[in-house]
Amino acid sequence: MATSTFKATNYSAEEFVESCGAILFDFSGPAPQVGLVYYKPKDEWLLAKGRRNCGESRHAATLREIEEETGYRCHLFPITMPTRAPASAEKSSVPDQPRLYPDLTEPFMVTVREVDGKANVKIIWWYIAEVTSTDRASGGEGEEAFTSQFFNTEDAIQKLTFCSDRQILKKAIDLTEEQAYEGSRILNPDGRQK
Questions:
Q1: What CA–CA distance (Å, rounded) separates 62 from 48?
Q2: Which end of the chain is least crowded, N or C, by CB within 10 Å?
Q3: What is the CA radius of gyration of the chain?
Q4: Backbone φ, ψ for residue 170 (5° rounding)
């Protein structure tokens, strides 16, 4: 019997949970703002995320969790980024190496978190999202244990409780820095595009 040369760990369904989250941006002003959630019971500032339900797509889970935790409706923000995933129209023999693709709403990062060892793993898919309106979707603050607030990017990085969340946010900022204000998003005072 052959043994694979790749290091691998297998998890059955009762040993892992899939979560989806997003960096929530507001690009409507002159500089981007980042929405963070404050988890009241533990006094922690976090990125919004939560478990994917059975039968729910990752995209749908991301949007639902953001709205539940922040109270804001959003959409996935298309970005140009490198990925090892091939484009849908490419041949299956395309080399397994990163290539730059425009307008992706795919995860830009994944976290694999061991909780209590091998028998309890959380996989978190991270997306970039843009708030569709600064009016709260449900008129409230999101779920009872959370409140949300927007910060400029530097303050958001400093506000986050955990280093791993800071790394995720920094990567999202790097990916969106130039792309968010392209086109007609930001205009000069005379109405011309910047």
A1: 9
A2: N
A3: 18
A4: -60, -40
d(CA 70, CA 5): 44
- pTM for the predicted model, two decimal places: 0.87
Spatial CA neighbour of 20 closest among 89, 72, 69: 69
Residue whose structure tokens are 């507001």: 26
DSSP summary character for residue 91? -
Q: In the structure encoding, which two tokens stand for residue 190, read together?
A: 């005379």
For residue 178, the SS3 value is coil
Mean pLDDT per 10-residue run, the chain (194 residues)?
A: 83 93 95 96 97 98 96 95 88 86 95 80 96 64 85 98 98 90 44 36
Question: For 75-126, what is each residue's pLDDT tens digit?
Answer: 999 999 999 998 888 777 888 899 999 999 999 999 999 887 666 899 999 9
Q: Identify each DSSP E strand in the chain by its residue range.
A: 16-26, 33-39, 44-46, 49-51, 74-76, 79-83, 99-104, 109-114, 121-131, 146-152
Write down the domain spans for the chain.
15-85+98-176
